[in-house]
Amino acid sequence: MGFTSVNRRDAMKRAAAAGLLAVPAVGALASCATGGDDGDEKAEKGKKSKKNPLGVKEDAALQVYIFNGGYGDKYAQYVTDMYQDRFSKADTEQKATEKIATQVQPRLVKGDPPDVVNNSGAEPIHPGKAIKNEQLTDLTELLDAPSWDDPDVKVRDTLVPGVVQMGAFGTDGCYQLNIASTVYGNWYSEKMLTETLEAEYPKTWDEMLAVCKKAKAKGIHGWTYPGGHPRYMLFSMFAMFAQAGGREVIEAMDYLEPGAWKHDAVKSVFEAFEELVAKKYVLTGFDGKEAHIEMQTAWTKGKAVFVPDGSWVENEAKDTTPKDFRMAVGATPSLDKSDKMPFGTLYAPPGEPFMVPAKAKNAQGGMEWLRMMYSKKAARNLFEEVSSIPVVKGAIDGLKLPPGVDSSQKAIKAAGKNIVLAFWKEWYRDMFEADYNNVMGKFMLGDMSVKQAMDTMEKAAARIAKDPDTQRVERS
């Protein structure tokens, strides 16, 4: 694939036209071109028709791999059952695993992969590398196909802004698609905040420190995080980077520009969290294999006020969450009046990605499975099963929402155009999974200074930028 050069000005025009001003525009990401021809190893295509717009072979077997994490796999089985009902002659199989890369990566290399893969969890397949190695199907054919609910509307036009853009990875195609809107931020119990602490959600960092001080006086930590997965801290810090320095700061991170991680805005955010650590407002620990579950359980039991998390937490922590907990998410507080973006700026990307391997024996069936996943009934089922916001427009209109989802919807509405996305987190997975994770592991224990944290991330970005194997996007 090589590097992709992007004309930023043209990209912004396309983004504005598409209503995507909340997203860093990425040139070729704004649309997906036709791509990919079928290899001999794939199942023979069926005949295209109104009922079968992707030309799925009626009796071709389908294998689905689902990440067995916070969402479980019941929501996916609903779609697999839809597929079996539609293609009754086909053998369908769905497998759940916590280790997607371990289970699927060897099969990608061997050339005998599943037909559709939920590329999620702590061990995902590296999308950029898989694209470079031509191991993924370009999903443009799916995006341009008639939607399940309305044959006059393309699949791409039923999806909320950002879904297609997140899946392009700087190419002219589209190789990964998400199914849920993830809202990241500072998650908390409204009951604890308003009743136990008699406080309001902090809109400034000074107010945040005041809430933490009040909590400490009652024997409660202001914050906690999963020590085994310290990269969770990005879920609270990222929007603050944008708030403090504007979109240019996070876009510089996306494009691996020199100095991005040494910006004054980045420094101010690290300094803010350094103060939390120095004042011992942070409950540490939770270093085991299930660190995130341990952290969430401590939180729902009232040992901490705030956790950096995503909107999957409502479902993942449901077994330990008291009925009167009133789970909510808050946008990251403003640092001071010099912030470039307002309070309410939100890190809310599409999440829970799916891909169709290039050498899947039934790639057409894999895309058809996703077309069904993007039906309103499957999207609504996703919401009902896991309390997550589907990316299908209007899928949950009129439904009664649980507290966390309701809070997420309100946060998205309040943010308006001030929604930010961390493309670098998706494009350069190692930078997030390894470099940032290692930095925050030391930083949140007070074992790394602000300067050391910034220097380490700056060196990581430079290393990735020079790596000839990096599927990199450049702006001009």
Q: Can you walk me through this structure?
A:
It is globular and about 70 Å long. The chain folds into two domains: 4-15 and 41-181 and 351-399, D-Maltodextrin-Binding Protein, domain 2, CATH 3.40.190; 185-347 and 423-475, Periplasmic binding protein-like II (D-Maltodextrin-Binding Protein, domain 2, 3-Layer(aba) Sandwich), CATH 3.40.190.10. Helices cover 40% and strands 12% of the residues. It has 476 residues and is an alpha/beta fold. This is N-acetylglucosamine/diacetylchitobiose ABC transporter substrate-binding protein. Residues 1-30 form the signal peptide.
Q: How would you summarize the topology of this molecule?
A:
Elements: E1 4-6, H1 8-17, E2 62-67, H2 74-86, E3 92-97, H3 100-110, E4 116-118, H4 127-132, H5 140-143, H6 163-166, E5 177-181, E6 185-189, H7 190-196, H8 205-217, E7 221-224, H9 234-245, H10 247-254, H11 264-278, E8 282-283, H12 291-300, E9 304-309, H13 313-316, E10 327-330, E11 346-347, E12 350-355, H14 363-373, H15 376-386, E13 389-390, H16 403-415, E14 419-420, H17 423-427, H18 429-443, H19 450-466, E15 473-475
Parallel strand pairs: 1-15, 2-3, 2-4, 7-8, 7-9, 11-14
Antiparallel strand pairs: 4-12, 5-12, 5-13, 6-9, 6-10
Helix pairs in contact: 2-14, 2-15, 9-10, 9-11, 11-19, 18-19
Properties at a glance:
single chain, D-Maltodextrin-Binding Protein, domain 2, globular, 2 domains, disordered N terminus, 6-stranded mixed β-sheet, 476 residues, 5-stranded mixed β-sheet, alpha/beta
